[in-house]
Write a structure and sequence with these properties.
The chain is α+β, with helices and mostly antiparallel strands and about 150 residues long. The chain is about 40% helix and about 20% strand. The protein has helices at about 10-20, 45-70, 110-120, 135, 145, and strands at about 25-30, 35-40, 75-80, 85-90, 95-105. It has a 5-stranded antiparallel β-sheet with strand order 2-1-5-4-3, with helices on both faces.
C-alpha cells in the first residue's frame, strides 16, 4: 500500500515558516485549483479563508483570461498592490495556488523571491492535480474522435 507524503501538518509548517521568515508577511494560504483550502499559516481564521478562496478564484480567472487574450503563456503570478498591503498569488506546477499577504512596508522583492522559491518546492508539500484531457491535448474531443 502506498502512503501519501503530503500532510496537512507539513504544509502548515511550510506556510508558517514562509510567513515567519519574511519581514512584513502577514499570512499565507494554499488553495486547490478549484478553490478549496489545503492549508493556512497561523492567524488565518475560517471566514478569512473562505473570503480568500472566492477572491483568489476570481483573480485567477481574470489572470487566465488575460493569458489567453494576450497570448502570454501560462499564468504564473498575480500581484495586487493596495495602499497598505500587497497580495501575491502564484500557481504551482502541480496546480495549487499560493496566496501571501504582506504589509506595504515589507520588501516586495524579498517576498517575490520567497514566493518563487516556495512554488518551486511545492511538490514536497502538495498533491498533484491533473488537468482535464481537453486541456492537455489542446483541443476538444469531437464526434469524429469518438467513433473509433
Amino acid at each position: 500500500m502506498t502512503h501519501s507524503v503530503v500532510t496537512a501538518d507539513g504544509l502548515t509548517e511550510a506556510l508558517n515558516d514562509l510567513v515567519d521568515r519574511v519581514h512584513g508577511a502577514e499570512f499565507a494560504v494554499v488553495l486547490s485549483p478549484d478553490g478549496l483550502l489545503l492549508g493556512a499559516s497561523h492567524d488565518v481564521h475560517d471566514e478569512l479563508a473562505a473570503q480568500l478562496s472566492s477572491l483568489v478564484a476570481g483573480l485567477e480567472a481574470l489572470g487566465s483570461a488575460a493569458t489567453r487574450v494576450c497570448v502570454g503563456g501560462t499564468l504564473r503570478q498575480i500581484v495586487v498592490q493596495m495602499a497598505r498591503a500587497f497580495l501575491f498569488i502564484a500557481t504551482t506546477r502541480n496546480g495549487a495556488i499560493l496566496t501571501v499577504r504582506i504589509g506595504a512596508d515589507a520588501e516586495v522583492g524579498d517576498m517575490a523571491y520567497e514566493v518563487a522559491l516556495f512554488v518551486g518546492q511545492a511538490e514536497q508539500h502538495l498533491p498533484v492535480y491533473l488537468a482535464p484531457a481537453s486541456t492537455v491535448t489542446g483541443r476538444e474531443i469531437g464526434a469524429a474522435d469518438r467513433s473509433a
